[in-house]
Amino acid sequence: MTKQIRLLILLGLAIIVCLIMILLAVNSFSSSPWQEWQTKYFQAQIAELQGKMSTIQGEEQKRNLAQEIKEWQEKKPTVQEIRLSNGRIERCTTCHLGIEEISVSHPIDSVGCTACHGGNPLSLDEKTAHEGMYGGGHPGQLESARLSCGGNSEVGQCHSGNREEADNQVDLLATALMASKGGELSMTRYMYGLDIPPKVLLKPGETAADIQAPFNHRPEEGKFQQNCLAVCHLTGGELPGQEVKANGCESCHVLSNPQHTYEGKDVTIPRSKPGYGISHRLTVQIPYTQCNQCHNQGEYKVDTMDFVPRHDLDRVKASPPPDQESLETRWQNVYSPGLVFTKCEVNLDCVDCHTREETMGDGEMYYSEWKALKIQCRDCHGSTVSKPIEWKVTEKSDTAWVEARINPVFPPLKMGDVILKTAKGEELEYARQEDGKWFSYRKTNGEKFYIPQVIGSQCQQDPDKQSSDDCHKCHDVSKDKPSSGGE
Ligand code: HEC
Ligand code: HEC
Ligand code: HEC
Ligand code: HEC
Ligand code: HEC
Ligand code: HEC
Ligand code: HEC
To answer: Model pTM?
Structure first.
């Protein structure tokens, strides 16, 4: 080989190396969107840690924090893969790196993402990855819940199609009044004389909005549809006074702030865009504020078919979340001004009395709220002639045994423990008998309340008059200020 040829080869190699380096450099400037999302996530972590730096003392802690920041600064975006137990691979977290684990019962490494969301798990392109997502990003919508929550070919049966009816929340919810507005439909028609006696007009899964002429073409028809039937549904109904739609299971199980904006760690979700929960979390610890997105927002006037929002709504929305608010604001916030209530109706949360069967349905279709209700005041307090119904838990197949495990703040339930059962047969796994006395554990934070009993007290009730209206005649505390108890 001549000297010139060797030189030429060397020159050629040098040119190739240069070209490769230029290509690499260009590539790192025009990174793909998923790399940008990861970089954004790293930067968010760094900013958060730097914010912490000024608040901590101690050289050692400062050094550790600085080291942690350095590690984030040196991180390079890489494709993220979740390998599920069935061998499937998912790459959604490549962009959604910061997303919270949805709940301990749905661990990220065995459930993944598409079991609930659908979509294309291998795609690294936003559009194709999201194609065909159940409910367009809101998997709990009643139209898609059958696949996303009920179960699909990938994950098998989840909240539908099980042997135990109580485990089929998706099927049960199709019969709940809150999902269908069947109660409003039947009772309003009854009040206007269209059906006497009132009757059930819907089949499971139907909603009042599906009915062509819910008001038999009477002049109020339009207003009835728009002001009553179209709001507050568990799917698609607009939440009162907000530009956000209710979304099926999420309406209760994904907690939201008054603006419905996301405050979690996934940087892809715009902070100011309404339509999200506070974070990517499912919970059964539902505070009253979640129910009050629809309830206690104002007054429905059946005679004019109008909804009149409560006049203090802005103040209510500006209040701190329930775990941080004062006793006084809680008393002002829970019920609309003008409603009457007893102390426990506001001290406790809605779900401490209103049970799963009331909120999610029991498989029956009802024509009114009153028919659907399971809980009565005397279920907890007894009457002058009766005590609450006791139920001893003796089998692991007992619903209460299973239920007690889902909420992390309940004290462990033991075999032989005595819990309370409603007159309509629903077990309250959080209302326990201890040393012959009844106590209730609050679902949101485990706080323990003694349940005072009517029997043996000075109560002047008529044992045959047990509706809350009857009790409120003497036990109305709605105008009292709470004794602030050293707050
Ligand atoms: C290339 C990046 C990328 C990938 C890959 C990706 N996403 Fe997204 N995703 C985004 C961005 C960006 C948004 C925010 C869109 C917006 O601004 O509304 C988003 C929003 C969402 C939302 C909220 C939808 C809504 O209505 O706002 C869901 C749910 C979601 N993604 C699920 C998934 C799932 C499941 C996968 C995997 C199958 C996935 N994503 C893969 C980038 C991605
Ligand atoms: C158990 C079911 C379930 C699983 C598993 C799940 N999600 Fe979600 N995801 C939901 C629900 C429910 C929402 C709330 C939708 C709404 O607010 O309407 C949601 C919302 C989202 C959003 C919008 C932001 C938010 O928090 O509202 C994104 C993004 C998202 N999921 C991505 C993912 C990714 C990525 C995975 C896998 C790591 C995943 N999800 C796993 C049920 C699930
Ligand atoms: C998305 C709106 C919405 C949310 C959120 C909501 N509700 Fe309702 N609720 C309704 C509507 C609408 C009705 C009346 C339905 C009818 O009569 O047709 C109703 C009726 C009820 C009833 C009486 C009928 C029945 O089914 O027992 C109870 C009790 C109740 N809600 C409790 C709750 C509790 C507890 C929560 C929170 C865990 C809650 N609701 C959250 C809209 C909602
Ligand atoms: C109107 C409010 C509301 C809606 C909507 C709702 N849930 Fe529930 N859910 C509850 C309440 C209240 C509980 C009981 C919590 C407790 O007793 O600690 C509960 C409990 C649960 C539990 C725990 C096990 C059990 O049955 O107690 C699961 C699982 C569940 N819901 C799934 C769903 C699914 C799936 C959907 C949608 C198809 C849904 N929920 C819609 C209010 C609701
Ligand atoms: C201390 C227990 C308790 C608490 C807390 C409670 N309720 Fe009730 N609620 C009841 C009882 C009991 C009834 C049935 C009334 C009767 O027997 O006359 C009822 C009836 C209802 C009804 C149907 C009757 C009506 O008022 O038109 C709705 C809707 C309702 N509650 C919603 C809620 C909401 C929303 C919350 C939370 C803001 C809540 N409740 C908090 C015990 C409670
Ligand atoms: C799930 C069980 C439960 C149900 C249902 C229930 N309560 Fe209570 N009640 C309690 C608990 C716990 C307390 C004690 C905590 C408190 O005072 O807030 C209490 C306290 C009371 C007190 C004494 C309050 C005081 O001023 O010291 C009265 C009166 C009362 N309830 C009436 C009612 C009426 C009326 C209803 C029906 C609308 C009702 N309760 C439904 C659990 C319940
Ligand atoms: C005619 C008035 C009157 C009616 C109606 C009434 N109560 Fe009472 N109740 C009282 C009085 C008075 C007391 C004893 C003073 C007190 O503790 O507030 C009392 C005490 C109680 C207590 C015990 C409180 C404690 O701290 O020991 C409970 C629980 C209670 N009532 C529940 C009810 C329920 C539930 C109803 C409806 C079914 C009801 N009451 C109807 C007047 C009434």
So the answer is: 0.94
